[in-house]
Structures are given as structure tokens and as C-alpha cells.
Design brief:
506 residues; mainly beta; two-stranded antiparallel sheet
Length: 506
């Protein structure tokens, strides 16, 4: 029995025949963006926050973030995280070349009959600049590159099928595992969405102080964005009924699937991932925006206990972030597969495994042609509209005493998991912090990943250098690691001078 048959069936059942190419949440930079001292980075949370900024001039030299999380598999290591990063892992867990000899039993499933999700991203920010003008005006410019890969609402049986394949303890396929899906069984609970996107955005922010009285300040801001799409792909599976009667055959019943992609070779050698805008191949364009408003309350009687630099007892804000979309019209392929006319039989040969053993572009093209032999496929659509990860945000910040603050941030996704495009998982976080000109420490605490997962993160700034994570505890312990994320960078600015009454001045 040739092993490519089992591999191929696993790949197909997961949606590879729907052009799933997985070269590739939640990007928040939360501690950085909530700070009063982060200049142009504040517009990522609310564009109004830079009005009457604490800096006269602020420059983002570079900022980089990356992260991965999932709610299906957890990494349970038999050695500590400290041993791993200090290269003191016991020899019994190493291979002959001194590297870690990874074992499958270190991956532990989270089985709760709930859909599974995966999120991977990288983001690079540079250049960025913010300039404070007169009369409460501030302007800013920020360029970002983002690569995002997301899988949403995969049924638990399908996730297990991805890991273990088909249980052939009483069948003919060369596999036996703890999966409930067996040879000849019809599988139908498999709706899910997949989105992969690489894009750049150039945003210009304008913010203005509208009211500045003795006791309160009201600010507003907007960030129009030029969106540049480098590559995209999606799968929107509404449901497939499928069974495997043998080692080289799949039978499809009721089917309703959409998928589309731009030239997949762009993901293999993506100049956007190297952050070179001038040489990037733009396949789609669009427009987006952020907008927000901020209220600061500064009663006369508390000036002796609050920070003279920030000059508020509490700050509250509301913002709509990442509205807009990117439309791709170059090198686009869209497919809509519908079957309601009886079973369709697909016989798998060695050509499939051979096609996917090379680059993914070749595998995608071969799979497209193979599926056309059994399905009638609608390919009339000539564009892909990829939606941006729009969220509604509420912010709050309380100045407890001088340089001590307690903040809060609630972010609610408004796109949903079924949309074509990116989304940011909803969260609620508290942000206690110490904030000074030269030093800042923040410990975000709360619920992330659509309020399902508790998180404790950190943000540390020493002068112009900062580093942070939204999942510190999950990364320092050796067991139950379900995600990793970090961000760091260098940004600096010229602080604003202060008038005698404590209000900022040029």
C-alpha cells in the first residue's frame, strides 16, 4: 500500500483541493498603542489621541510584531522554557546533531466539541512620523506591511482528521489512530473559512482638539488609508459531504464551496514580506479609514495628584478601526463549486502527490484541473474583494497617581468569521502601567481570542527602545503553550513644552 494515498486523502479532506496553501491573533501592540508616550503608534488605537500630543515631533524608526495562536493543539514540553532559551535542554530530548528531537506526544489536543481556529500574522511598521502643529492640530504618517493567515470555525472532527487522518483499524488504509472518522463513513460537519492576505497600508492622520477648557478636552481624528494588496486567497466552505470508501477514492455528495486566489507564487517570494514597497508587485488596491474621538477630564482639585505631563484624571475614547477593503483584479481566479445532483467520484493517483511535492503554485493548478473533471465549476467572477479587519473600540484610562495609570480597552470584531478577508478577534483587557518619559512598564490582563482565553502580557520601554507581548505567561511556561507573540521596535521624539497652567504648548 503506497503511503501517498493516505497523505492525499488527508490533504483533500482538509480542503487542499480548494487551493488551501498555508505558507503562512491577533495583532494588537496593545501596551504600545495605549501609552501617552507612543506618538504615531497611538493612532493604531484611536487617531484622535495624537491631537495636542505629548510630543512636538515623533518618529517611528522601526516596529515589528509577529504572532501565532490556536485553540486546538497545545505544546507540552518536558523541559522548561528557560532550559530551551539557554540551550540547557537535557540530552535525552536532543537528536544526534544537538537539535531538539520533537515528539508528537508533546502536542496535546483541546477536545471540547467546539470549532477550532488558527491565526498567524507578521506586521512591519516603518516609516512613521507625527508632527504637532499649532491650535491643537497634529498630523501623522505611517506605513505598515502585514501578512495574515487565518482559519476560522473548523469543526473539531475535521481538526482531528487533519492531525490523524482516517481511522483504518477495521479498513484498508495504512493508518490507525484515535480519530472517530473511519473508512466508508460519510463526513459532513465541515464548514469553515480560510483567509490569507499580504498587504500594505499608507495612512495619513489628522487630529484636532475641538474643546479645551479648564476641566475637559474633546479631540477628534481620522486616518484615511491607501491599501495595497500584494496577494490573497480564501476558502469559504459552506459544507461538503465526503466519504473515503478505499485508499485511493473519495466520493463527494452535497457540496457548496467558494474559493479564490491571486498568483500563488507571490506568497513564495513575496517582496512585501521583505518590506520593500518600491519593488512590491501590487495586485489589488483599495481605500480604508480609522476614525475616533477622545474625552479627557481634568478637574481643578486633582492637579496635585495627577501627571502634569498628561494633565487628566481620566481619558475615554471610541474609535472605528480598519474600515475598508482591497479589490484584486489582476491574476485572479475565483471558483464556486456546487453539487446537488448526486455523488461525484474522485480517483486519486500518484500525480496528485507529485504535483504537491513541488511548489504550491503547481499543486494548486493541478488540483484546479483535477476538480474540473468531476464538478461543474463557476469561474465567472473576475475579482476578489478582501475586507479589512474592522473593529469597534472603546478605551479608558485613569491616572491613579502621578505616573501610575490603570487603563482598559474593549475591542469588538464587526466582520464575523464567515467574511472573505481578515478579522481581529474580540478582546477585553485591563492595562495597569507605570509611565514616565524615560521608562514605561505595562501588564495587560484580560480575555482575548473572542473572550475565550485569559491572557497576561507585558510592555516595556526604556528610552526609545520597546518590547512587548500580549501573551507573556503563555510563553514562559513549558506546558500548555497554544500561541506565541511579540513585538519590538525603536521610536523616539521631541517632547512638547508645558505652559504654566499645565497645558501643552509648542
Amino acid at each position: 500500500m503506497k503511503m501517498y494515498n493516505n497523505y492525499t486523502i488527508r490533504l483533500l479532506l482538509l480542503g487542499s483541493f480548494l487551493t488551501l496553501y498555508s505558507q503562512a491573533n491577533s495583532q494588537t501592540f496593545l501596551g504600545l498603542q495605549h501609552s501617552n508616550m507612543s506618538g504615531i503608534h497611538q493612532v493604531g488605537l484611536n487617531p484622535a489621541n495624537i491631537a495636542d500630543s505629548r510630543h512636538k515631533l515623533y518618529v517611528n524608526v522601526v516596529a515589528l510584531g509577529a504572532g501565532f495562536n490556536n485553540d486546538y493543539l497545545k505544546l507540552n514540553l518536558p523541559f522548561s522554557f528557560t532550559q530551551l532559551i539557554t540551550n540547557r535542554v537535557p540530552s535525552q530530548y536532543k537528536n544526534s546533531s544537538g537539535g531538539i528531537a520533537f515528539r508528537d506526544e508533546w502536542l496535546v489536543e483541546s477536545l471540547n466539541d467546539k470549532p477550532k481556529n488558527v491565526n498567524f500574522y507578521t506586521q512591519f511598521r516603518t516609516p512613521g512620523v507625527m508632527l504637532k502643529l499649532s491650535n491643537g492640530f497634529s498630523v501623522g504618517l505611517q506605513y505598515k506591511n502585514t501578512l495574515s493567515f487565518q482559519v476560522n470555525d473548523v469543526a473539531e472532527p475535521l481538526a482531528r482528521l487533519a492531525r490523524y487522518g482516517i481511522d483504518s483499524s477495521s479498513g484498508s488504509i495504512a493508518y490507525s489512530g484515535p480519530n472517530n472518522f473511519q473508512v466508508g463513513q460519510t463526513f459532513g460537519d465541515n464548514a469553515f473559512t480560510i483567509n490569507i492576505n499580504a498587504f500594505g497600508e499608507l495612512g495619513g492622520t489628522v487630529a484636532k482638539t475641538l474643546i479645551n477648557s479648564k476641566s475637559m478636552v474633546i479631540k477628534a481624528g481620522v486616518t484615511p488609508k491607501l491599501l495595497m494588496g500584494y496577494a490573497t486567497g480564501y476558502v469559504k466552505n459552506r459544507g461538503i459531504q465526503v466519504k473515503a470508501p478505499g485508499s485511493d477514492t473519495l466520493i463527494f455528495g452535497q457540496t457548496d464551496v467558494e474559493y479564490g486566489y491571486t498568483d500563488p507564487s507571490y506568497f513564495k517570494d513575496l517582496s512585501a514580506a521583505n518590506f520593500d514597497l518600491l519593488r512590491s508587485k501590487i495586485q489589488g488596491t483599495g481605500f480604508g479609514f480609522d476614525l475616533g474621538a477622545t474625552f479627557e477630564y481634568k478637574p481643578e482639585g486633582v492637579k496635585n495628584v495627577t501627571s502634569q505631563k498628561n494633565n487628566y484624571l481620566f481619558r475615554a475614547g471610541i474609535s472605528l478601526l480598519d474600515a475598508g477593503n482591497i479589490v484584486y483584479r489582476q491574476n485572479v481566479k475565483n471558483r464556486h463549486v456546487v453539487n446537488n445532483t448526486g455523488d461525484k467520484v474522485l480517483v486519486i493517483g500518484p500525480e496528485f502527490a507529485e504535483a504537491w511535492s513541488g511548489d504550491n503554485a503547481r499543486g494548486i493548478r493541478y488540483t484546479d484541473s483535477l476538480m474540473r473533471t468531476i464538478f461543474v465549476i463557476d469561474s465567472s467572477s473576475k475579482s476578489i474583494k478582501t475586507r479589512m479587519p474592522t473593529t469597534l473600540n472603546l478605551q479608558f484610562d485613569y491616572n491613579v497617581f502621578k505616573f501610575v495609570y490603570v487603563g482598559a480597552n474593549w475591542s469588538q470584531d464587526v466582520r464575523g468569521k464567515k467574511s472573505i478577508g481578515m478579522r481581529k478577534a474580540s478582546y477585553f483587557m485591563l492595562l495597569p502601567r507605570i509611565e514616565t518619559k524615560a521608562f514605561e512598564l505595562c501588564l495587560p490582563i484580560g480575555l482575548m481570542n473572542d473572550y475565550r482565553t485569559g491572557r497576561i502580557g507585558f510592555y516595556l520601554r526604556l528610552g526609545p527602545v520597546f518590547i512587548g507581548s500580549d501573551n507573556l505567561i503563555g510563553q514562559i511556561r513549558a506546558n500548555n503553550i497554544s500561541g506565541l507573540d511579540f513585538y519590538f521596535g525603536i521610536s523616539t521624539g521631541i517632547p512638547s513644552k508645558k505652559k504654566e497652567n499645565g497645558e501643552s504648548s509648542n
